[in-house]
Write a structure and sequence with these properties.
It is found in: Cytoplasmic vesicle, Secretory vesicle, Chromaffin granule membrane; Lysosome membrane. Belongs to the major facilitator superfamily. Sodium/anion cotransporter family. By secondary structure, the protein is mostly helical. The protein folds into two domains: 43 residues, no CATH class; 378 residues, Growth Hormone, Chain: A. It is 74% helix and 3% strand. It is built from 18 helices and four strands. The chain has a four-stranded antiparallel β-sheet with strand order 1-2-3-4, with no helix packed on it. Strand 3 and strand 4 form a beta hairpin.
């Protein structure tokens, strides 16, 4: 009975109103667009969309607090436990090993049953793990081994997050608003970086590194309770309701994946995302250590907060301007390439300039501009997956994130090794800039924005 009630809530009886280009119906405040006889997409009404956008933004914020707790505390923990930079790089890189394993699974599950359910389950899991991390370091065999395993498991649990967000956006948001929606949700990342950089740094100084992990776990657990209590109805954790076959969710299992991966535009998107994410993960992981090494007397909150404060308005601006250009008649592919050029090409200039500066103010300015420009990726490659394959956006984004997680793992570890052996941050930043240039060049040459997942079905205009 519970499963039937849950199915009815997401699949209420409807009457379709046919138009020349699509079938549209309205029921219980939802707008349902039928792409063909078998696949329908339920779009959130405006009020519900705003509520869910706020909650998903907060979930991303707390996720990044949890994820960045280790890089923020890395210097303190390395001193306490006697880790070298190679050891620290191994601990931070373990996250990406785990991050690889659940990307595709999380995206496929989200495409099939709805990303909201997947996000609720994953957030509750990593919230508990983050909160008990300090306890595990005390009861485990060795802190280095314990933290490496814990970071791996954290990556496994958080790996489904972004594929689920992409799937939710593809299913619940209309095409002309996806750029701004993804950019808004991405602000959760920058807000989380600000919180862990500002509040987390203060907690680190006042209460010790353990408090940073406690704070992230507690906030994420509160989010889980609020979503379960107020936005979900019925037995969310029931396997009968969780794995019910929902006809309103596009089924990625029907996609011709072999055909999909023969498309050059798909590979251009994957490679560009791989290059961007590798650079971004490495910067996030090592920037706190860079500032500690180069400017040991600088205040932590300055370099841990200002770049992400800059990223908030730039992300919203990028999403707004991309949607505006598309509505004005600019080609979607052209807009995506322009956004990606800003995110990778222009940002690389400021990453490279980090090699040449010896001033703390100039270093913070370069990092802030590089991070701010990188947010244009949210309306570039991150939305391009909706353009190419909206019916399997979550699963395809999972493939993209799996590739980028592997490359991110290698880049984070390799950067730690280079710094350990040579003491040269210039080499690291030069490599990151080069990787970005390669990725954006491939996307500009081969990238497209036309659908390639189901070429025989009509598109919604």
């Amino acid at each position: 009975m519970a499963a039937e009630q849950e199915a009815h809530r997401f699949n209420p009886p409807v009457d379709f109103v046919k138009t020349p280009c699509r079938n549209v119906c309205y029921t219980s405040g939802f707008k349902i667009m039928q792409i063909n006889d078998k696949t329908t997409t339920t779009v959130w009404p405006r009020t519900l969309a705003r509520t869910w956008t706020l909650m998903l933004l907060l979930a991303t914020c707390f996720l990044y607090w949890s994820r960045m707790a280790m890089p923020i505390c890395a210097v303190t923990m390395a001193k306490e436990f006697g880790w070298s930079k190679t050891d620290t790089g191994m601990v931070m890189g373990a996250f990406f090993w785990g991050y690889c394993f659940t990307q595709v699974l999380g995206g496929h599950a989200s495409d099939r049953i709805g990303g909201e359910r997947v996000l609720l389950l994953s957030t509750s899991s990593w919230a508990v793990l983050t909160a008990i991390t300090p306890l595990l370091t005390k009861i485990g065999p060795r802190p280095l081994v314990t933290m490496t395993v814990t970071r791996f498991l954290l990556g496994v649990m958080q790996g489904v997050h972004y594929p689920s967000l992409v799937s939710v956006c593809a299913q619940r948001v209309t095409e002309g608003e996806r750029g701004f929606s993804m950019s808004t949700l991405a602000c959760g990342c920058y807000l989380g970086m600000m919180l862990v950089g500002g509040v987390g740094s203060l907690m680190l100084d006042w209460f010790g590194w353990e408090s940073v992990f406690y704070g992230a776990g507690l906030l994420a657990f509160c989010w889980t309770f609020c979503v379960w209590k107020f936005l979900f109805q019925g037995p969310v954790f029931s396997f009968d309701s969780l794995w019910i076959n929902n006809n309103n969710i596009p089924e990625s299992s029907k996609i011709n994946w072999l055909h999909l991966f023969r498309e050059p535009s798909v590979w251009a998107m994957i490679i560009s995302h791989l290059c961007f994410s590798s650079t971004y993960y490495t910067l996030m992981s090592w920037l706190p250590t860079y500032f500690k090494d180069m400017f040991p007397h600088a205040k932590d909150w300055v370099f841990n907060v200002i770049p992400w404060f800059v990223a908030l308005p730039t992300s919203l601006f990028g999403g707004s301007i991309s949607d505006h250009l598309i509505r004005k008649g600019c080609g979607t592919a052209t807009v995506r390439k322009l956004m990606q050029f800003c995110a990778m090409g222009a940002a690389s200039v400021f990453i490279f300039l980090l090699c040449k500066t010896s001033s703390f103010v100039q270093a913070v300015a370069c990092v802030s501009l590089a991070v701010g420009l990188s947010t244009f990726n949210n309306s570039g490659v991150s939305v391009n997956v909706h353009d190419l394959a909206p019916s399997c956006a979550g699963a395809l984004y999972g493939v993209m994130n799996t590739c980028s997680a592997f490359s991110g793992l290698l880049m984070v570890y390799m950067s730690g090794y280079i710094i350990e052996m040579t003491g040269s941050w210039e080499t690291v930043f030069s490599i990151l800039a080069l990787v970005n240039i390669i990725g954006v060049t491939i996307f500009i040459v081969l990238g497209e924005a036309k659908r390639v997942d189901q070429l025989d079905q009509p598109q919604i205009i």
